[in-house]
Amino acid sequence: MLVGGVVAAMDGNGKDDGATINPKQQVVSAKRPALPLKLLLLAVLATGFLAVVVIFLSGFTYSMLPRFSLLLMSSAPLSSSSPTTQLAGGNGKTPLERWITTPATTAWHNMTDDELRWAATWHPAIATYPYKRVPKVAFMFLTHGPLPLAPLWEKFFSGATSNDLYSVYIHASPDYTAAADEFSPASPFYRRHVPSQAVEWGQPTMVDAERRLLANALLDLANDRFVLLSESCVPLFNFSVVYSYITGSNHSFVGAVDDPGPGGRGRYSGELAPEVSPEQWRKGAQWFELHRDLAVLVVADDRYYPKFREHCRPGCYMDEHYLPTVMSVEAPARIANRSVTWVDWSGGGAHPTTFGEANVDEAFLTRQTTVTDQGKCTYNGQPSEVCFLFSRKFAADTLQPMLKLAPKMLGYG
Ligand SMILES: *[C@@H]1O[C@H](CO)[C@@H](O)[C@H](O)[C@H]1NC(C)=O
Ligand SMILES: *[C@@H]1O[C@H](CO)[C@@H](O)[C@H](O)[C@H]1NC(C)=O
Ligand SMILES: *[C@@H]1O[C@H](CO)[C@@H](O)[C@H](O)[C@H]1NC(C)=O
Ligand SMILES: *[C@@H]1O[C@H](CO)[C@@H](O)[C@H](O)[C@H]1NC(C)=O
């Protein structure tokens, strides 16, 4: 499917339109409320004080400090208690517990991209965790504005046996100021927007946003797998199927093919040598899934990234080449060379098919979840009948038919 898609895309020197920017997007005027400066200042002061005490009390090394202060800084309840109460037990948590606790209920913060990248790429050098770690899957939504299919995703997430199995991050346009009011407190999407920058179709800013999402999700140490989705993606299976498929895989699902045509190697620029040779150049759909250590590698990358940013601009599309190429060079045995997000390229041309209300019925769902659209693939080296967990592109008006199909698709809801 993917290879066929790539060929179809290649013929038109095509380009998936990613998290497409809808020109009719409403721009809402309300501004996101500023962060309470005093609270943050207090948190920063408390953090410094506490950090020093932690060194004395528990002999922690300096290397732990930045992560530690980050947890505190973003942890709202702590900022309301005085440094003294934090010392006397810090909400009844041990230092290790505080170290590994989910940073905050909100994904928002005021770090710059540079600060964020630095904070996000701390990585334990010891592979085993000295505590029972339940891996979380981070679902990262790249969208221009609203997430019209969120009610379907909310149903999907309601099948999680615990909220500690997943987390949600949303990168919307900075113009999209209705974000704060989009979801109710009960929603997994509530306050999950991350600080964002403008994204242009086919431009490196698209990959900047992907990296920004990864960096934000890395701040939560429990996040172990990272999935990129768009506002037009839907799940094809229920939460437990998706969760076990992703966490049980030895490979990260990054599409990567060596396409000899003009839409593949034809987009390679000699300026990328010596870091990347034409033989190493890969193409793949933007919608990836990554293991944590590979996510760290991507966010920390300052070897390939600046060169791609400079030398892969339209008609080279960085979002179709950066990750497939860099993963194929740096960690070829770690990636499945296929995406878990299905898309229909059968129409040919630069853009995949968008499905509307009229397309979505039970027969469609059956096709999507069986060999007709799933095709054949390998999973952990074995033949598998489940190859795609997500599907795109679904227009907003597919919500109602999808909700109606949800009980059949999910087994609940
Ligand atoms: C974030 O907020 C704190 C507290 O108000 C402030 O000291 C710091 O400079 C801010 N950082 C950025 C990058 O704006
Ligand atoms: C993915 O492709 C690379 C070559 O780029 C290969 O080394 C690797 O084994 C492939 N992965 C799988 C799961 O087949
Ligand atoms: C996955 O990788 C681990 C560690 O390399 C290995 O022990 C395990 O057998 C692999 N599982 C499969 C299904 O390939
Ligand atoms: C999720 O889907 C699988 C496969 O269809 C099914 O066996 C399982 O019962 C479903 N889980 C729930 C909670 O419905």
Automatic annotation (TrEMBL):
Keywords from UniProt, A to Z, are:
Glycoprotein, Glycosyltransferase, Membrane, Transferase, Transmembrane, Transmembrane helix
Pfam family of the protein (one) = Branch
The reply on keyword Amino-acid biosynthesis is no
Membrane topology of this protein? Single-pass type II membrane protein
**Origin superkingdom:** Eukaryota
Q: Which residues cross the membrane?
A: 39-65
Subcellular location(s) per record: Membrane
Please list the GO terms describing molecular function.
glycosyltransferase activity
Q: Name one GO cellular component term.
A: membrane
Q: Which InterPro entries match?
A: BC10-like, Glyco_trans_14
- Where along the sequence do coiled-coil regions lie? none
Q: What is this protein called?
A: Uncharacterized protein
